[in-house]
Design brief:
Layout: E1 8-10, E2 18-19, E3 31-34, H1 36-47, H2 52-59, H3 63-83, E4 86-89, E5 92-96, E6 100-102, E7 108-110, H4 113-118, E8 133-134, E9 155-157
Parallel strand pairs: 1-5, 3-4
Antiparallel strand pairs: 2-4, 5-9, 6-7, 6-8
Helix pairs in contact: 1-2, 1-3, 2-3
Length: 158
């Protein structure tokens, strides 16, 4: 029996998900599909400069799996750049990291997914203190603009 597929943890979903070479009409281009977890591996390794072990920990996968995801992403990006193809970031099998908050009095809690769409809480649910800030546990990856803070179940897109 095959080993169950482990959902990859993603802390950042990019706002821009499509890139194409300038001056070439879209209808004339081939497309390369980069999954969200491949984009996350590129972000962790090449943008944040993490070692593979740390990147694997942040994505909740083994180091060899992280290496395979990274190699696949790099091959697709090289193909697109060198052969003049468009890149679309979409799909994959991943979960989005939850948002943890901390008040000025050091109370910590996770925010449910519906609360994110309604806006971040303004007061601590324990002591009603203002000054709520995102809390990043040691060794956990978070990435720009708060997009990775949306709490998600296992998502399969594409």
């Amino acid at each position: 029996m095959a080993r169950p597929f482990k959902c990859r943890r993603v802390a950042f979903v990019p706002d821009v998900t499509f890139f194409k070479p300038a001056g070439i009409p879209l209808r004339a281009l081939e497309e390369v599909r980069l999954t969200v977890e491949e984009a996350e591996a590129i972000r962790l390794k090449d943008l944040e400069g993490l070692e593979q072990e740390a990147g694997a920990d942040k994505m909740n996968v083994s180091r060899p799996t992280f290496q395979r995801i990274l190699a696949s992403a790099r091959q697709k990006i090289a193909d697109a750049i060198l052969n003049g193809k468009a890149i679309r970031i979409e799909g994959g099998n991943f979960e989005i990291s939850p948002l943890r908050l901390r008040c000025a009095n050091s109370h910590e809690w996770e925010v449910p997914s519906q609360a994110i769409t309604e806006g971040s809480p303004q007061l601590c649910p324990v002591c009603n203190a203002p000054g709520i800030e995102p809390f990043v546990p040691a060794g956990f990856g978070w990435g720009g603009k708060g997009r990775g803070w949306v709490r998600g179940r296992h998502r399969h897109i594409g």
